[in-house]
Design brief:
The protein is α+β, with helices and mostly antiparallel strands and 610 residues long. The chain contains 30 helices and 9 strands. Among the domains are: 181 residues, no CATH class; 79 residues, no CATH class. α6 packs antiparallel against α29, α13 runs antiparallel to α18 and α13 packs antiparallel against α21.
Amino acid sequence: MPRLTLSHSSKLLMNCSPVLFCLALFARSCRDDLFLCEVCLSHFSVSHGGEYDVKRHRQCETHKKRVAQKEVSQSMHTFLLKPKQDSNVDKVTAAELTSVYHTVKHSLSYRSEDCGNKLTSAIFPDSEIAKKMSCGRTKAASLVTDVLAPASVESCDKKAHTPFFSVASDASNHGTTKLFPLSLRYWTPKLESKILDFYEDSHESAATIHCQITSKLEENGLQLDMISAYTADNASVNYGKNNSVFQKLKADNSGIIKANCVAHIVHNCAKHAGDMLNVDIDSVVNKIFSHFSVSAQRTEELKEVFAFVEEDYHVVRRHVPTRWLSLWPAVQRLHDSWAAIKSYFLSLGENQWATLELQAYLAFLNNILKIFHDVVLLLEGQDGTVCELYDIMLTLKTKLQQRQIDCFFGMETSAILQQFPDQKAATIKHDFSNFYKTALNYLEKWYDFTDNNYQKNVRCLALKSSFTFSQLSDAVEVLQIGSKLDMDELYEEYCVTLPRQQEIVERKAPVVEKWALLLKSTKTPNLTAVASFLFSIPITNASVERVFSLVTAAWTDQRNRCSVELIKSEIQVKTNFEYSCKEFYSFALKQKALLEAARSSKKYKAKRNI
C-alpha cells in the first residue's frame, strides 16, 4: 500500500473500505504517515499496514477503554447553554438559579431539586424554558456555593453601604466542629444585617478570633478604621480587660465601641432573680412538661380533664434555658391552664403539683416575667437602635423599682395571698420583694445607668423630640468620630434639616425611618456619617445567634455529609437575600454577571484550576 499523504489519505478514505473511512471520524493527520486518535489521544502510524494499522489501533485496550468511557459520560459542554444559539438562554439560567434559590430558602433537599426539574419538563412539555432546565444535585450545590453565596456577600462590600459598620461574632459547636459566624450591620439608610462569613476553627482564643475577623474583613475590602462597634456574648474572651478580642480590635481602631448584648443582661437578670425564689420555677415547668410529653395516655387523660372543666386544651410548653423567650410563655401556659392541671394532679393524688402556694408563684411570675419578655422582644427587633437603648433599660429599672416600693405583685397574686394565714402570706410577699431587689441589683451591676454611659448622650437623636446642635456635638464627642467629620459643615447641614425636625418627630415610625426621611433629598454627608455610625451599633448579638438556629435546621442527621462550605453558603443565601422566590427571578434576570457565572463551568471545583 503506498505511503499516505494528506491528499492521498483523503482520497483513500473516500474510496476504500468503511473501516478505513471511519479513520476520518476519530483521527486527524499530524503529518503524512502519522495520525492522532481524538478518542484516546494517542498517535499511530499507517505507513506500513494502512487499513490494518487502523484496525489494530481500534482493537488496542487503551482505545477500547476510552471509547467505553465516552459512551457512559458526556462532555460538560453539553450541559452548558450557548447564548448565541438560544434566545431564551438568560431566562433558562434565571429559572435554574431561582429553582435553586427556592430550594435553599425553604430548606428543601437537593434531591427534590433534581426531581423537580425533571418533573417540570414533563409537566410543561410545551415550555421551551422548562424543557431546557437542567439542574441536578451537583450543579445545584455548585450554584449555591460558587454563584449565589458570593453574590449575596457582594452587598456587604464597602461600595454597598455608608461608611461605618459593626462586627458581630460568636462561637458554637456542631458535634466536634467549632463554628464562628461573622455578621455585619450597617445603615443604607435602611438597617442591614448580613452574614459576611461562617468559618470553622478549632481554636477559640482571643488572638485567633481577632486574626480571623481582620483577615475576613480585608479579604472583602472593608477597612478596620471604619468599624463602629464589636458585639458578642459577654464572655471574657470577647470583653476581658487585658487579652480579649475587643481589646485587640481597639488596638487596630481606638474608636471602636464595646457593644455588649443587652438582651443577655435582661435575660440573666430575670433568671438570677428567679433563682432566689423559694420555688424553682424552671424545675416546675420542665417536670410538668416531661410528665405529659413522654406519655400519650397521660396527654389524653389531661384532654379529658380540660373538657370536664370546660376549657380548650393547650399543650404544656417546655422551657429551654438557652432560649431567652421561652420561660414566660411556658409559665403563662401553666397559669392559664391551672384549673385543668390542678384537677389532673389531684386525681392522681400528687398534691405537690396542685398547691395554693404554687398557684401564687405562677400568678406572680406570669405578671413580672412578661415585663422582661417584652423588653427582650423589643431589643431583638430588627429596627432597634442604640439611641433608644438607655430609655428601654431605664424604663425596665423604673418599673421594678415602683413595684418594689408599692409591694405590687399583680392583682391576681394579691387575691390569692389573701387566702393564706397572715404569717405565710408575709413570707411569700417577702420572697417576691426579694425578687425585685435581686433583679435591681443585677441590673445596676451589669448596665451603666450613670452619665458616663455614651448611650445616655445619644438618646436625644432618637427623634422623639427636636435636638439642638449642642446635643448633636455632645453625641459626636462621646462617639469619638469628630476627627472624621467637618464640624463646621455639620452645623450647616444641621441648619438645613432643622425646619423638618418637628414634622419628622410627630411621625409614628421607627427611628431609622425617621432619619431616612430627615436626610432624604439633602446633601448632608457629615450628618449622614453620624447616623451611619450610630445606627450601625447593635444592641444585641441576635444576628449571629439566629445563625445557629439556621445551622440546626439545615445541618440535620439526614444531611450529615454536608460540608461547612455548603452550610455557610446556604445561610448566606437565606440571610443576605431578602427577596421572595418570585422577586428573585426578576432580580436574577437583570443580573448579567450573575447569569454568566451560573453558566460558566468554573463553578465546578474540578474546573476551577483549568
